[in-house]
């Protein structure tokens, strides 16, 4: 393990080098967040093409409508001198001045051309500054329209990712201090995982850029949460096992070697299932969702490397004193009094524990029956931005105007216009693109517009921001249909290979499915009853489910892997209590569980499994619970991002991780193992085989 010190230095140096290179430029794509193959996506592509043709650009230009709204602060009528001043301002802004019928407001429609989200946000900011400059007394200005809404959506992440990183780091620091009760030890995993986070934040941009995969502003924030959450979990598991082994030997390098090998096996299995889980996002029809999936895979791999290959070198370099004031000494017996009692309770009443756990989870699942998805544009923000309030004011002053009108592309402009006007719409021509006539349609929602155009013989597409929300809802439903069974299937297969057991894999997959449904139900109740959300965002169930399945299974893997190890030790024990090779490498494990009722000795296969899971629960209960609370708290930090969808995802995952940690891993799975014994490993009989083999001398 001495070589790990040099490996840690090397990996840190490579990480610093990667950070020094800097992130790749984020791609400019107006359709990055839109689902492939939908009408609204095709409309956005046509609009971009029209802008490029008009500007004669090289393929990067994007033009969107914006509306400058002028109104009096007290609702009074605009006076002639004020209207004259506003007319001059309108000419400067590049659009006509259109007063309302009651002359209490006026609008100026303009076009904003940019080469990406950042440039669009800058252009909208400049437009707002120009519109607000030297206005007549009592007159105020606001900017809305598609360009302004997009700018406000982009702007909410200005500084938000830094805030999220700061909050996440603070949460991890506090919980590590509480867990270790050491003024020193918490710094080491925090620094190592913090470096891993920055490395992942750089590496993912280059990988996605090289593969032609797009991402958006939220990707980096979610990635940081994943890296901190998963990386700290792996670190907690390693440090806990390292501390156990320090009580068995005075050689810290030997202790780390004995702790590292079994931890590596467990964490490798865990990280692999997480990577497989988040990889399912690659099946989405939304480009940025696929980008998030690939980014998450990279983040988990980086967190794994730093937790398992950098942190060991850092720990052995500093020695035992980092545990001060609770420095482990050779001969120290681990104390798990609370978890011994929990194990004893599970051992005595496995049927009652199983039934009660299932009732609690089932009751929470009922909340999922009331879930509705699909929030409107104005409800996407936690704090309402100017574009939304301006849109509301615009609709009040100009009932015939829409801040975000529908966009129609049609091969037959005359027939489409007639059909739309017959349905009550106001239609304006907006040029052409790729043999399509482009129309702006007000006073008609997306569904009604599509129904009106269904009878038009020529091809007609309906897009715009409202249509994008409708299509996003349909795409999210499609993604859930594909991704949910895919991730469950992959997790099941991974568990079969890991545990060599079909039944254990099936039980664990079933528990993670129930936990996720229950988390969605609890999250729905909390979102509607406490936080006042009327609906889930269309992507909330998808993201929450994927991350919960991928990360939530970790704790069951940690428990069951340790249980199998402990059972093997018991099954191979000699009459004097020593162990053969099968049980080697578990020094420092709890010698008693269930209130001290589990003694080391020769155990029948079924009994070895039952006692093994109790010993595993006793030995790992504290560290896994700490890891679960930490992960839940880290995901709750998503609430600092100013979009409703992230608050909802944070709520669901927070509740789901706690449910998995405190109920499923602590009570349900150990109780089920108590009931099944060695049948839990069906069709394998691993400890029957061990019993038949002669014990090592």
Give descriptors for this structure.
697 residues; alpha+beta; Alpha-Beta Plaits; Multidrug efflux transporter AcrB transmembrane fold; four-stranded antiparallel beta sheet; 21 helices; 8 strands
Task: Write a concise synopsis of the structure shown.
By secondary structure, the chain is of the alpha+beta class. Helix content is 63%, strand content 8%. A 4-stranded antiparallel beta sheet has the order 2-3-1-4. A 4-stranded antiparallel beta sheet has the order 6-7-5-8.
Q: Which helices and strands occur, and which strands form pairs?
A:
Layout lengths: L2 H19 L17 H17 L6 E11 L7 H14 L4 E2 L5 E10 L2 H16 L6 E6 L1 H10 L4 H21 L6 H25 L5 H30 L5 H28 L7 H32 L18 H12 L1 H16 L20 H12 L8 E5 L2 H10 L3 E8 L2 E7 L3 H8 L6 E4 L1 H35 L2 H28 L10 H32 L33 H32 L7 H33 L9 H7 L5
Antiparallel strand pairs: 1-3, 1-4, 2-3, 5-7, 5-8, 6-7
Structural overview:
This protein is α+β, with helices and mostly antiparallel strands and 697 residues long. Among the domains are: 61-155, Alpha-Beta Plaits, CATH 3.30.70; 338-384 and 465-697, Up-down Bundle (Multidrug efflux transporter AcrB transmembrane fold), CATH 1.20.1640; 385-464, Alpha-Beta Plaits (2-Layer Sandwich). The chain contains 21 helices and eight strands. It has helices at 3-21, 39-55, 80-93, 117-132, 146-155, 160-180, 187-211, 217-246, 252-279, 287-318, 337-348, 350-365, 386-397, 413-422, 446-453, 465-499, 502-529, 540-571, 605-636, 644-676, 686-692; strands spanning 62-72, 98-99, 105-114, 139-144, 406-410, 426-433, 436-442, 460-463. The strands form two sheets. The protein has a four-stranded antiparallel β-sheet. The protein has a four-stranded antiparallel β-sheet with strand order 6-7-5-8. The two termini are 28 Å apart. Residues 577-601 have low confidence and may be disordered.
């Amino acid at each position: 393990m001495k070589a790990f010190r040099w490996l840690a230095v090397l990996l840190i140096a490579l990480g610093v080098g990667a950070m020094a290179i800097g992130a790749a430029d984020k791609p400019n794509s107006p359709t990055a967040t839109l689902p492939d193959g939908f009408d609204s996506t095709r409309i956005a592509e046509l609009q971009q093409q029209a802008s490029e043709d008009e500007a004669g650009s090289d393929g990067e230009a994007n033009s969107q409508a914006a509306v400058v709204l002028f109104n009096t602060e007290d609702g009074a009528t605009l006076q002639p001198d004020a209207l004259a001043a506003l007319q001059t301002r309108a000419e400067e802004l590049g659009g006509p001045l259109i007063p309302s019928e009651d002359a209490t407001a006026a609008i100026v429609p303009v076009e904003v051309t940019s080469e990406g989200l950042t440039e669009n946000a800058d252009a909208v900011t400049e437009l707002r500054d120009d519109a607000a400059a030297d206005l007549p007394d009592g007159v105020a200005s606001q900017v809305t329209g598609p360009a302004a809404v997009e700018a406000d959506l982009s702007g909410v992440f200005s500084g938000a990712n830094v805030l999220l990183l700061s909050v996440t780091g603070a949460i991890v620091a506090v919980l590590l201090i509480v867990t270790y009760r050491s003024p020193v030890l918490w710094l080491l995993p925090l620094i190592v995982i913090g470096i891993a986070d920055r490395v992942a934040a750089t590496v993912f941009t280059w990988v996605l850029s090289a593969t032609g995969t797009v991402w958006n502003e939220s990707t980096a924030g979610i990635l940081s949460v994943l890296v901190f959450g998963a990386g700290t979990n792996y670190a907690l598991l390693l440090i806990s096992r390292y501390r156990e082994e320090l009580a068995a030997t005075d050689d810290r390098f030997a202790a780390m070697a004995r702790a590292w090998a079994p931890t590596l096996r467990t964490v490798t299995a865990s990280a692999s299932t997480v990577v497989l889980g988040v990889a399912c996002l690659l099946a989405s029809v939304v480009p940025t969702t696929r980008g998030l999936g690939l980014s998450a895979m990279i983040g988990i791999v980086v967190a794994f490397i730093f937790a398992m290959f950098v942190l060991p070198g850092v720990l052995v370099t500093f020695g035992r004193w980092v545990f001060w004031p609770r420095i482990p000494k050779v001969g120290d017996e681990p104390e798990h009094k609370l978890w011994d009692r929990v194990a004893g309770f599970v051992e005595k009443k496995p049927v009652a524990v199983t039934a009660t756990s299932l009732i609690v989870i089932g009751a929470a699942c009922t909340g999922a029956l009331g879930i509705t998805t699909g929030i409107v544009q104005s409800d996407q923000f936690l704090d309402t931005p100017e574009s939304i309030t301006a849109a509301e004011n615009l609709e009040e002053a100009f009932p015939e105007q829409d801040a975000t009108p529908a966009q129609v592309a049609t091969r037959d402009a005359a027939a489409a216009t007639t059909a739309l006007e017959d349905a009550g719409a106001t239609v304006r021509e907006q040029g052409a693109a790729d043999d399509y006539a482009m129309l702006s349609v007000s006073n008609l929602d997306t569904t009604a517009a599509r129904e009106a155009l269904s009878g038009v013989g020529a091809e007609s597409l309906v897009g715009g921001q409202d249509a994008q929300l409708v299509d996003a809802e349909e795409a999210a439903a499609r993604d859930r249909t594909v991704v949910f069974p895919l991730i469950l299937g992959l997790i099941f297969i991974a568990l079969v290979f890991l545990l060599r057991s079909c039944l254990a894999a099936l039980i664990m997959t079933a528990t993670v499915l129930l936990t996720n449904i229950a988390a969605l139900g609890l999250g729905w109740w909390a979102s509607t009853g406490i936080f006042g959300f009327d609906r889930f965002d269309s992507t909330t169930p998808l993201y929450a489910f994927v991350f919960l399945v991928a990360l939530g299974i970790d704790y069951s893997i940690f428990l069951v892997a340790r249980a199998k190890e402990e059972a093997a030790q018991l099954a191979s024990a000699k009459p004097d209590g020593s162990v053969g090779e099968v049980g080697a490498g578990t020094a420092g494990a709890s010698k008693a569980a269930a209130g001290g009722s589990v003694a080391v000795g020769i155990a029948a296969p079924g009994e070895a499994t039952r006692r093994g899971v109790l010993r595993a629960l006793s030995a790992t209960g504290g560290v896994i619970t700490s890891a679960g609370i930490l992960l839940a708290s880290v995901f709750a930090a998503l609430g600092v991002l100013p979009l409703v969808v992230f608050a909802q995802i944070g709520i669901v995952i927070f509740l789901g991780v706690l449910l998995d940690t405190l109920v499923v891993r602590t009570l349900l799975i150990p109780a089920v193992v108590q009931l099944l014994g060695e049948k839990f490993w069906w069709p394998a009989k691993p400890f029957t085989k061990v019993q038949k083999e002669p014990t090592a001398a």
